[in-house]
Amino acid sequence: MLFLDSSDPAEVRDLFSWGTLSGVTTNPLILSREGAEGELEPRIRAVCGASKGHVSVELLAESEAEMLEEALRYHAWEPSRICVKVPLASEAAMRVLAALAGRGVPTNATCLMSFGQAYLAALAGATYVSIFSGRVRDMGYDARPVIAEVREGLDREGLASKIIVGSIRQAFDVTESLSAGAHIVTVPPPILRKMLWNPQTERTLREFNEAWKRRGGRE
Description:
Blueprint: E1 2-5, H1 9-16, E2 21-25, H2 28-33, H3 40-49, E3 55-58, H4 64-77, E4 82-87, H5 91-102, E5 107-112, H6 115-123, E6 128-132, H7 133-138, H8 143-157, E7 162-166, H9 171-180, E8 184-187, H10 189-196, H11 199-214
Parallel strand pairs: 1-2, 1-8, 2-3, 3-4, 4-5, 5-6, 6-7, 7-8
Helix pairs in contact: 1-3, 4-5, 6-8
């Protein structure tokens, strides 16, 4: 399954027209890079209107009370669509994740780099556990064993969390992540477009078309 890693409503609408996407992930870096200005709510509502499935929106607050308040505010915008991204960087974040799961709010435990983090998030009831493949590799490790270990643990214990792999740097990362056991890969628009393109496909079609033209296009 593929999600789109974008906050641009026009691009989201265009790429969802392919019929291949099942959700959207956003984060503060994506929003800033894609020129989001002013209030966040209109932007996220526009993304919801241009897509289907869960739309992940990341918390910015750091204290437990502020995180929970922010999460419930986001979820209220589109309760059937908004998935709250909780960066798993503190004990407070774990408590917020568990509280949201207890209220039936979809959650995406994000910025995960290890089996331990993903396992804790899954035990707390996270809807999704997001492993950052590119960031894991930045630390000098192969992300595939982490993905495989998390998938094995989820399956073994019957935990409902789904693995999202993000921080995708090249098209082959998608293949590797899915092969390692990811349920979902969230793909930036340029990578999604690269997945469609293959030079041999272009050469083959050009050969077919040129052969047809040489014979005058006759049946």
